[in-house]
Every structure is written in structure tokens, then in C-alpha cells.
Design a protein that fits this description.
By secondary structure, the chain is α/β, with parallel strands linked by helices. Helix content is 39%, strand content 17%. It has an 11-stranded mixed sheet, sandwiched between helices. A hairpin with a 5-residue loop joins strand 10 and strand 11. The radius of gyration is 19 Å and the shape is globular.
Length: 319
């Protein structure tokens, strides 16, 4: 989906983004996925619904007796889905990573375990899913009724207090994801509290450096500008008032946040107060990792699977 359309009127109840992702996936074969510890209602339902939609072919990894008991309680049929026994969460994470490493799974999906348990297995140097020199990062893909563009927020779940080198990889990963989502030249706003460089605020220095790195071709595939406040990134009117001229203002596709705390709060505020829907994906690993909150709905998990499918086939085009 191209991001050339104008900004929608605020408050318009139009979830335009995720519907198009799901439509695109209808023409693509399902990918195999290790579903790690699907032992909550939404985790198991999300995997089953994604399988029914033809997005994934899941292998459920966790305590078999508990998974079957939960399925019976929910009234969902998992008889056709393979289950790989794991008695506890860390073992499920280890086995899920192994399925991805040996090619039996093309993606991994977080169930109801803690993110740090899952990512500890992913990040292991010898047995994990690190991909060469790439840095692992997370992106929230947002469908926001008040904004006509696909909006990516990064990093809000993996890199706690990223330094400049980390942010380089975070931005490049997000640009690569945008390409997979059919945004050919994404516009990246590197966020801070202001639009001017202030030596006392590290995020403004990092933003300026990232902008120059993009100008010099170190970051490729997108237009990067910053530092930029949130309002000018998404509102041309705010930028006009501040006399800020940039190809990114009012039409950012990617919001690169200063740290995990600010990114997580921004995404959750858009979700709970702004009515946005979100999908979560981890980038930079050998396979896409569908990473959602334990509080997320089955619908969010479904859309996150669609993002993983599009990412997989962008990296592995069909012949």
C-alpha cells in the first residue's frame, strides 16, 4: 500500500491499514510458525484464527495437557495442529527457537509467556536467532483512524536505552519493514521534545546524526529527518505554525523514538486513548517474530501474523 494518500480527518472511524494487509495475504501461502506457550485464551485463539485465515501453519509449543484443556474450555478445535511438549516457559522458548533454526518454522509467535523469557532464547549467540551483524529491534505497526498513513513506531519493546549505533539499526530495520508493507520510500521522523539540536538533550544529537547518516547513504531506502516533535511529525498544520520545512513533517510513516519507555507509552496511548489498532513484530532475527502484549486481542495477533507473512515473502519472493 502506497502512503501517498492525504491525512484523514481526525476522529474518522476508518481502519484502512490492517484490512489491506489481510487482503494481500490472501494471495500468499501460509507460513509455518512456532507458537510459543499459547496458554491464555487470546494466545490460543489468535493462533487458531490465524490458521483458519490461512496465514500460518502453527506448531503449538507448550504443556500439551494444558493446551488441550484450554482448547476444550474455549471450544476450539486443535486436533489438526501439532503440539511440541514443553513443561515450562523457558523450555518452550528454547524449542520454538530450535524449530526456526532448523527450518521447520518460518516465523515465531509469542504466546502468553513473558517477553524477556522468549527473547533470552532468541538472543543466545550459539543457539538463538541472531542474523549476522544485524541488530534485533521491535516495531509497532499502527492502524490509526485519525491518520491516513500506515504508522510504524520503533523501538518500543526490545532496546531499552539505545545508543546511536543501536538507533542506526533500529531505523534501518523499520525502513526495510516499510518496504515489505508496500511503502517504497518511507518518511522517518526521529522524535525528540523539540525540532532544534540541544547539546543537553541526547535524543536531539542522535536524531541529527541519523538524519545526516541518511543524507550520506549510510541509512538507505527512506527519508530521515530529526530531531522532530511528535506534533510536527504527524501534523502539517503544527509544522506550519512552527515554520518547520521538511519532506517528513505531517506525513511521517515511521516514528523513531528516543527509548523503549517513550515508544511503549506512545503506542499504548494511541491504542487506548486514540482508538488505534496495533500489530507487533521483531525484526533483525533469522525469522519474523510476532511479539504482542499478553493483553492484546486475538485480532491484534491475527494482524501481527499478516505482517509476518508479508515480511517473510518480501525476503523470500515466490518463484
Amino acid at each position: 500500500m502506497s502512503n501517498s494518500e492525504p491525512q484523514a480527518a481526525a476522529g474518522a472511524a476508518d481502519y484502512h491499514v490492517f484490512t489491506k494487509f489481510l487482503e494481500r495475504c490472501k494471495n500468499l501461502p501460509a507460513i509455518t510458525a512456532a507458537v510459543c506457550w499459547p496458554l491464555s485464551d487470546v494466545a490460543l485463539k489468535g493462533a487458531v484464527e490465524a490458521a483458519a485465515e490461512g496465514l500460518i501453519k502453527p506448531t503449538l509449543v507448550g504443556d500439551e495437557a494444558k493446551i488441550k484443556a484450554l482448547a476444550a474450555k474455549l471450544g476450539v478445535d486443535i486436533s489438526a495442529l501439532p503440539i511440541l511438549q514443553a513443561a515450562y516457559e523457558a523450555k518452550a522458548a528454547e524449542l520454538s527457537v530450535a524449530l526456526c533454526r532448523n527450518g521447520e518454522a518460518q516465523a515465531m509467535m509469542k504466546g502468553s509467556l513473558h517477553t524477556d523469557i522468549l527473547m533470552k532464547a532468541v538472543m543466545q549467540r550459539e543457539t538463538g536467532l541472531r542474523a549476522g551483524g544485524r541488530r534485533i529491534s521491535h516495531v509497532f505497526v499502527m492502524d490509526t483512524p485519525a491518520y491516513a498513513r500506515t504508522l510504524l513506531i520503533t523501538d518500543a519493546a526490545i532496546n531499552i536505552a539505545p545508543e546511536l549505533e543501536d538507533k542506526f539499526y533500529i531505523v534501518q530495520n523499520a525502513i526495510d519493514l516499510a518496504h515489505a508493507l508496500n511503502i517504497p520510500q518511507p518518511k522517518v521522523a526521529v522524535l525528540s521534545a523539540m525540532e532544534t539540536v540541544n547539546p543537553k538533550i541526547q535524543s536531539t544529537l542522535d536524531a541529527a546524526a541519523l538524519s545526516k547518516m541518511a543524507d550520506r547513504g549510510q541509512i538507505t531506502g527512506g527519508i530521515v529527518d530529526g530531531p522532530m516533535a511528535f506534533d510536527t511529525a504527524v501534523s502539517a498544520h503544527a509544522a506550519e505554525i512552527k515554520h518547520l520545512v521538511s519532506p517528513v513533517v505531517g506525513q511521517a510513516d515511521i516514528l523513531a523514538v528516543p527509548d523503549l519507555e517513550s515508544g511503549n507509552m506512545l503506542a499504548k496511548q494511541l491504542e487506548y486513548l486514540g482508538g488505534a489498532q496495533l500489530a507487533g513484530i521483531v525484526l533483525g532475527a533469522r525469522v519474523p517474530i510476532i511479539l504482542t502484549s499478553r493483553a492484546d486481542s486475538a485480532k491484534t495477533r491475527l494482524t501481527s501474523c499478516a505482517v509476518a507473512v508479508l515480511l517473510h515473502y518480501a525476503a523470500h519472493p515466490q518463484k
